[in-house]
Amino acid sequence: MSVEVHWTHMGEVDARLREAVEQRLQALAEGHSDLIDLRVTGSQSQHHRHGAREVRIRCQARGRELVVTRERDELGLALNEAVDAFEREVHRLRAQQRDRRSERPSLPPHLGVVDRIFREQGYGFVLTDSGEQVYFHRNALSGLEFEKLEEGRRVGLNIEAGERGPQATVVHAAPPDAPSV
Which structural domain, as residue segments, surrounds residue 75? Predict the structure, then answer.
């Protein structure tokens, strides 16, 4: 997977340095789809240091925007430092995403059995282990085929409040280690 890098006001940076930075940024995107839009902008610093140059890297990443700014007397030095900082931010973001994924429970939050199916209308109901009737649409099935689904089938499901009561957002096959009713 590659990411398109947009360069703005970076003409004074040596072509070899720009190419090396481009390769580092592409390597960072390799095998990932989380970096969407990457912009590298050079400018005269607005801070008190007269003559300082600033590099800002702004990237749309899934779920948030990453912005890194570095300032040095030379634009090339600011660019290298900004890329170093940007790499650290991307690695930190990916580590947070991995941590959140590992916190997710392996079992669906609710278990039940398919109670009724209305094939022509494309929906049905699950009776949860707690006795609640939950509506599901055929599009909520994950790993199950609506046409082959049978009443009495043990399933796991995620539930949210719907307009007319609880509805399943996802219906999975019950995990093999799920308790039976």
Answer: 5-103
- 47 in a domain, yes or no? yes
Which residues are CB-contacts of 46 (< 8 A; sequence separation ≥ 6)? 54
For 95-143, the pLDDT digits (tens) are 887 777 665 555 568 999 999 999 999 999 999 999 999 999 998 998 9
**What residues contact 151, with CB distance under 8 A and at least 6 apart?**
113, 114, 115, 116, 117
**Residue 26 and residue 141: Cα distance in Å, rounded?**
37
Q: Are residues 76 and 136 in the same domain?
A: no
For Cα atoms 137, 141, 139, give the angle at the middle one, nearest 5 degrees: 45
**Would strands 165-173 and 5-8 be described as parallel, antiparallel, or unpaired?**
unpaired
Q: Which residues of the chain have pLDDT under 70?
A: 1, 47-51, 63, 101-108, 181
pTM: 0.55
